[in-house]
């Protein structure tokens, strides 16, 4: 352990991994998407609207095609005016009787691939369900844009990048608390004060990452769900773990004898860790509802991430943050070791 | 087993001789219930009714268990070392307090439903609710058993039990509140059994961790 | 120095809280909420640097005691 802490290779590779992941996380453009459909106007048999794209390339792309679609029915654009890279004016001729009032707007060009705004437009008119008459463009092949990008999702938009900042905070925290659990057991078995220092240092740095996770989570939630704090199993778990480890430091302050302090706090750390992680395992499955993905029936990031592009950046970022957390832990541990040596001298 | 029985008897005799502990707990329960009654007068919502009951029981448990090592100070502490093994001591403490807490819980339940009538739901199984009360009482005393032992060795005293115990007890409390809420809403055992299982799991973990870790607190 | 940092942090935080329904909020929602992502990264770095700063001060105090 001491040897590993003084070596530099893992620190350098940690810096490289984290810097690379952060660079990728910030630089990678978001996939193109349809931001909104606006200024929908309908007169007699014609429909006109403005399509606002996000990260799209209407000016430079070739073969731009826009149509509205409901199941097998589709009506193509008659007039198509490109204002700039992200604005289009579209006019469409409608039949007298529509198959439905609700249509998706679909767009296809050679740079952005196929973009769709599901249930994007509401059309007034007489409705009579009927069988489809096929596509209006015969040659349209649905494609994906060609460059590396982050998935485009409404509501999240660019904040999908936070997946690489906010979520790894919890991974780093869990890694450090797991580490402290192991060192606490080792302390009870071997009674070596070095393990006590490791436990304290790991928990201290874990608290830093817990605070990072909580505050960034609050910030992200404010601009996604509209509130800083929601009643969510994940949030409850985070809050409780913070309380537990704050109590751990209270416990250490209330015992004077160093041996006894180390023993009592190790016992508490083990007990709290197990009770808490059982809770984490038990409570999310008890919860009826969670805003966080991957716990209940919520769409998870897996569904967003069709080709696993997110996963590569996310895993690299997580590895980088964990190495950083271990680095900060090792500094804290060395600090405690020097302090202990100085106390022993006196 | 014989030693555990003797230890439980010892606990009982000490408490019986000095009835101050019992008196204070029962007075506490009476007073809190009356305060709750004065502040609410009527609770129509079954969920609020249930949560209030469990909060009263939770603080009663803290009251009971933070006193559990009060006698074990000075000469008596040293006497206890010679008397039995640490595992026997912690198990005896947990069992004694479980029995004690079950009584306190039923007492609180009676007083509580005397002041604030029981919101009888359709299709509710009273037996399941009583089982929940027993499970909750045992759960609280096993989980807090080790915590109060840690607090016993610090200079913080009863305040320390609350600081260390409250965050740890939340999972247990959530499981038991969800369970009894489910019973009040007339849910079937098919829905309730996962709450019951997680409660059992937490009780088993609390007891076995106490059994394994208490020797380390014990030795001076 | 620590208190100064804390004060600055509190100021930032109260800015975010008071940002409801005014220019600041609109700004956060603009350009695909990119500012939310940037401020999340910024907040993490700020907290980690604050932690390192505190540890730095602690080591400094220890050095002072060691030398005297």
Helix count, DSSP H or I runs of 4 or more residues of chain B: 8
User: What's the gyration radius of chain A in Å?
Assistant: 28 Å
The side-by-side strand order for the widest beta sheet of chain A comes to 1-2-5-4-3-7-8
The string of secondary-structure elements of chain B, in order, is HHHHHHHH
The oligomeric state is: heterotrimer
Listing every helix as H and every strand as E from the N terminus to the C terminus, the arrangement of chain A reads: HHEEEEEEEEEHHHHHH
Helical/strand content category of chain B: mainly alpha
Instruction: Report helical residue fraction of chain A.
Output: 40-55%
The stretches of 5 or more residues of chain B where confidence is low (pLDDT under 50) are none
Residue stretches of chain A low in confidence (pLDDT < 50, at least 5 long) are 295-302
For the biggest sheet of chain A, the summary is: 7 strands, antiparallel
Query: How many DSSP H or I helices of chain A?
Result: 8
Q: What separation lies between the terminal Cα atoms of chain B?
A: 25 Å
Shape of chain A: elongated
| Overall mean confidence score, pLDDT of chain B | 85
Account of the 3D structure:
The complex is a heterotrimer of chains A (346), B (220) and C (68). Chain A has 346 residues and is an alpha+beta fold. Chain A has two domains: 2-27 and 156-345, no CATH class; 33-127, Sandwich (Immunoglobulin-like). Helix content of chain A is 49%, strand content 19%. Chain A has helices spanning 2-6, 9-27, 166-190, 193-222, 233-253, 258-286, 301-304, 309-345; strands at 33-43, 46-54, 65-70, 73-84, 87-93, 97-98, 102-109, 113-122, 126-127. In chain A, the strands form two sheets. A seven-stranded antiparallel beta sheet of chain A has the order 1-2-5-4-3-7-8, with no helix packed on it. In chain A, strands 6-9 form a two-stranded parallel ribbon. Chain A starts with a helix and ends with a helix. Chain B is mainly α and 220 residues long. In chain B, α3 runs antiparallel to α7 and α6 (126-153) packs parallel to α8 (189-218). Chain B has one domain (2-218). Chain C has one domain (2-67). Chain C has helices at 2-17, 23-67. The longest helix of chain C has 45 residues, at 23-67. Chain A binds chain B through residues 188, 236, 240, 243-244, 247, 250-251, 254-256, 260, 263-264, 266-268, 270-272, 274-276, 278-279, 282-283, 285-286, and chain B through 143, 146-147, 150, 153-156, 160, 163-164, 166-168, 170-171, 174-175, 178, 194-195, 198, 201-202, 205-206, 209, 213, 216-217, 220.
């Amino acid at each position: 352990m001491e040897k590993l802490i003084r070596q530099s290779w893992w620190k350098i590779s940690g810096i490289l991994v984290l810097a690379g992941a952060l660079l990728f996380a910030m630089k990678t453009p978001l996939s193109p998407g349809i931001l909104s459909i606006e200024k929908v106007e309908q007169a007699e048999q014609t429909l006109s609207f403005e399509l606002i794209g996000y990260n799209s390339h209407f000016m430079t792309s070739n073969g731009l095609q826009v149509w509205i679609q409901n199941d097998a029915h589709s009506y193509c654009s008659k007039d198509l005016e490109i204002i700039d890279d992200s604005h289009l004016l579209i006019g469409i001729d409608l039949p007298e009787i529509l198959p439905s009032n609700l249509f998706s707007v679909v767009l296809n060009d050679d740079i952005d691939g196929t973009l769709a705004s599901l249930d994007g437009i509401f059309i007034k008119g007489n409705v009579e369900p009927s069988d489809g008459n096929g596509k209006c463009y015969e040659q349209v092949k649905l494609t994906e844009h060609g460059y590396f990008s982050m998935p485009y999702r409404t509501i999240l938009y660019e904040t999908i990048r936070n997946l690489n900042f906010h979520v790894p905070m919890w991974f780093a925290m869990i890694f450090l608390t797991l580490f402290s659990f192991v060192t606490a057991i080792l302390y009870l078995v071997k009674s070596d004060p070095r393990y006590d220092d490791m436990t304290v240092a790991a928990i201290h740095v874990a608290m830093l990452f817990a605070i990072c996770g909580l505050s960034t989570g609050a910030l992200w939630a404010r601009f996604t769900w509209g509130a800083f704090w929601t009643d969510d199993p994940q949030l409850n778990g985070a809050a409780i773990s913070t309380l537990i480890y704050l109590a751990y430091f209270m416990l250490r302050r209330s015992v004077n004898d160093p041996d006894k302090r180390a023993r009592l706090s190790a016992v508490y750390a083990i007990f709290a860790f197990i009770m808490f992680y059982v809770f984490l395992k038990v409570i999310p499955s008890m919860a009826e509802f969670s805003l966080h993905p991957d716990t209940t029936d919520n769409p998870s990031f897996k569904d967003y991430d069709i080709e696993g592009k997110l996963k590569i950046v996310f895993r690299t970022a997580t590895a980088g943050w964990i190495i950083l957390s271990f680095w900060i832990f090792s500094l804290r541990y060395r600090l405690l070791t020097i302090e202990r040596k100085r106390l022993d001298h006196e | 087993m014989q030693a555990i029985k003797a230890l439980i008897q010892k606990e009982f005799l000490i408490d019986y001789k000095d009835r101050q502990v019992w008196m204070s707990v029962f007075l506490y329960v009476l007073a809190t219930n009356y305060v709750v009654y004065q502040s609410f007068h009527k609770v129509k919502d079954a969920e609020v009714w249930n949560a209030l009951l469990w909060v009263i029981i939770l603080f009663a448990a803290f009251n009971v268990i933070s006193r559990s090592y009060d006698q074990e100070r000075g000469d008596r502490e040293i006497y206890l070392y010679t008397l039995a093994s640490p595992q026997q001591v912690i198990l005896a403490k947990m069992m004694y307090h479980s029995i004690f807490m079950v009584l306190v819980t039923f007492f609180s339940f009676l007083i509580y439903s005397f002041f604030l009538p029981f919101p009888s739901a359709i299709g509710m199984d009273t037996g399941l609710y009583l089982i929940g009360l027993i499970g909750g009482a045992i759960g609280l005393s096993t989980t807090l058993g080790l915590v109060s032992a840690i607090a016993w060795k610090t200079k913080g005293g009863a305040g320390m039990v609350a600081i260390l115990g409250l965050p740890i007890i939340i999972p247990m409390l959530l499981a038991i509140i969800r369970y009894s809420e489910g019973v009040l809403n007339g849910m079937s055992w098919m829905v309730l059994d996962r709450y019951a299982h997680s409660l059992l799991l937490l009780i088993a973990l609390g007891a076995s961790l106490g059994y394994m870790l208490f020797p380390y607190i014990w030795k001076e | 120095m620590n208190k100064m940092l804390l004060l600055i942090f509190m100021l930032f935080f109260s800015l975010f809280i008071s940002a409801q329904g005014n220019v600041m909020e609109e700004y956060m929602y603009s350009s695909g909420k990119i500012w939310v992502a940037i401020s999340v990264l910024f907040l993490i770095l700020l907290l980690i640097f604050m932690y390192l700063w505190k540890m730095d001060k602690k080591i400094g105090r220890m050095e002072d005691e060691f030398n005297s």
